[in-house]
């Protein structure tokens, strides 16, 4: 552990002044000092010989319309970034369930865990079982889109409608990029700083245009890098990167029978392993303006809403356009 502490100390000392680091505060593995926008609940799970806790928010409307929607976060995020979406959905009468997946946000960070989308889907179902919710609308963003896809395939009877917002996994990254061992992925994660996270997001999410509203979601993951717990977080991040690379869902879109909406920001270029792919293949990865149309053709009867010149986070970058597309589909 001394080795890990030294790494974290070096990360703190080598922070570049080019990012708004005054806002970045050290955050422990389960974000215990960070307040989520709604009350956080926990469900205890015994999974793979681990006693773990899964965090979730349960936002209940004042005037229920009888429908519930579950919002699934992406890899570099947690449930907190759904605050605005949850507020407006609740105002429309929807009950909103927002889990933090195991390995993310305020949920446990097990160090001996075989991450799979099937396992994450089962964990997620446990929350619905706890709440006695038989049927929900499911919205997944980024990696959450892969979780939502697997959840829908495993438990179609529970999914009223499916919405995929700039999901990753619309292509098989193994066909472009070479394999990276978990050990190498872990070492790469340990090198992350606020600056490296921001540079990645600028390149793939925001087309080199930074707005103040992006900062809180950078601060959350950057804060981890400044805490002694970061090796725990980095290890799970390496495991989940391996999961995304090795467990594509794109071949099974044809099996989805649930009413589905794709909300796609066409400027997005996110792709796992792009930096490891041959240079001639890199420009072909993460072409969301093509992948959205391709996926719509594969999911029978699905609807596609393309948001031109929008990146990886429509619900942050162009919230009114995102919410209109979402509400028109689920009302």
Structural class assignment: alpha/beta
Number of domains: 1
The spatial strand order of the largest sheet comes to: 1-2-4-3-5-6-7-8
| Radius of gyration from CA coordinates | 19 Å
Count helical runs: 11
Tell me the helix content.
25-40%
CATH fold topology: Rossmann fold
Q: What shape does the CA trace take?
A: globular
Q: Explain this structure to me?
A:
InterPro entries: AB_hydrolase_1, AB_hydrolase_fold, AB_hydrolase_sf, Epox_hydrolase-like. Keywords: Hydrolase, Signal. Pfam families: Abhydrolase_1. The protein has an eight-stranded mixed β-sheet, with helices on both faces. Mean pLDDT is 93; it is low at 1-22. β7 (260-265), α9 and β8 form a beta-alpha-beta unit. With 331 residues, the protein is an alpha/beta fold. The longest helix is centred in the last third of the chain and has 17 residues, at 230-246. It is built from eleven helices and eight strands. It is globular, with a radius of gyration of 19 Å. The protein has a single domain (2-330), classed as Alpha/Beta hydrolase fold, catalytic domain (Rossmann fold), CATH 3.40.50.
């Amino acid at each position: 552990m001394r080795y890990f502490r030294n790494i974290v100390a070096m990360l703190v000392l080598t922070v570049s002044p080019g990012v708004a680091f005054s806002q970045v505060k050290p955050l422990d593995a389960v974000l215990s000092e960070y307040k989520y926008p709604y009350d956080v609940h926990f469900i205890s799970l015994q999974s793979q010989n681990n006693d773990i806790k899964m965090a979730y928010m349960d936002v209940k409307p004042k005037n229920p319309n009888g429908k519930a929607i579950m919002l699934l976060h992406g890899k570099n995020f947690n449930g907190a970034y759904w605050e605005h979406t949850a507020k407006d959905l609740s105002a429309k009468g929807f009950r909103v369930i927002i889990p933090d997946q195991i390995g993310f946000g305020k949920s446990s960070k097990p160090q001996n865990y075989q991450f799979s989308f099937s396992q994450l889907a089962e964990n997620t179902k446990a929350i619905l079982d706890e709440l006695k919710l038989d049927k929900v609308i499911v919205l997944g963003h980024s990696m959450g889109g892969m979780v939502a896809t697997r959840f829908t395939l495993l438990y179609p009877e529970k999914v009223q409608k499916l919405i995929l917002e700039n999901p990753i996994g619309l292509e098989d990254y193994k066909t472009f990029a070479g394999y990276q061992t978990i050990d190498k992925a872990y070492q790469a994660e340990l090198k992350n700083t606020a600056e490296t996270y921001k540079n990645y997001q600028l390149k793939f999410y925001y087309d080199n245009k930074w707005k103040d509203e992006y900062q809180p979601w950078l601060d959350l993951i950057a804060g981890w890098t400044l805490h002694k717990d970061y090796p725990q977080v980095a290890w799970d991040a390496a495991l989940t990167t391996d999961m995304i690379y090795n467990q594509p869902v794109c071949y099974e879109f044809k099996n989805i029978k649930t009413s589905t909406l794709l909300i796609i920001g066409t400027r997005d270029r996110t792709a796992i392993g792009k930096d490891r792919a041959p240079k001639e293949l890199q420009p072909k990865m993460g072409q969301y303006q093509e992948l959205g149309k391709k996926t719509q053709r594969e999911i029978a009867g699905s609807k596609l809403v393309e948001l031109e010149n929008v990146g990886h986070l429509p619900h942050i970058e162009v919230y009114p356009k995102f919410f209109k597309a979402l509400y028109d589909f689920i009302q």
